[in-house]
Amino acid sequence: MAISGKAVKNQILTELLAWLWLGKVDSAIKLLREVSQESIKNHKELNNLINYFERNSSCIPCYALRNQLGLRTSSNPVEKANDLVVSHRQKRNGMSWSPNGSTSLATLTALRRNGEDHQWLLNQDLRFQFDAGADKPAA
Question: What is the CB neighbour count within 10 angstroms for residue 48?
Fold first, then answer.
């Protein structure tokens, strides 16, 4: 949304994704800051993207290394867990949740789905184990 012209946009996107694949967020930000003024369609969107990368740089991994180590490079297991724990129950028409209520319900739902509810209710203790069926737990 920030860059005008399909060819320029694709060229910048290709280079941007290459830097992000390597976890080089600073280089990705530098690339975005060096976009020529005539190629910028929406300065606000470009600044929003740069600000996003700056805020989240410590959370953006080196996907190339994760891939080489056989670790997940997508968030699909997390998205599905969110769907099961939060969205399914809390996003129905007419429902409204406070942050505390939403967090509490998500916590209880996760405990129940993970089979930890009895352990927690009886002993106030959680095992925090990886699923025995998981061949490679997400790191």
Answer: 13
CB atoms within 10 A of CB 8: 16
Average pLDDT, the chain: 82
| CA 20/CA 53 separation, integer angstroms | 10
Distance in angstroms (rounded) separating the CA atoms of residues 27 and 16: 8
pLDDT tens digits, residue range 5-58? 888 899 999 999 999 999 999 999 999 999 988 888 989 999 999 999 999 999
Would you state the structure tokens that stand for residue 109, as one six-digit string?
């739902």
Phi, psi dihedrals of residue 134, rounded to the nearest 5°: -80, 120
Cα separation, 9 vs 3, in Å, equals 6
Domain boundary assignment for the chain:
6-68, 76-123
User: How many Cβ atoms from other residues are within 10 Å of residue 6's Cβ?
Assistant: 8
Kindly give the interhelix angle for 43-56 and 25-33, rounded to the nearest 10 degrees. Answer: 160
Q: Identify the residue whose tokens are 């209710």.
A: 121
96 sits in which H/E element: none
Point out which residues pair with 3 in neighbouring strands.
40
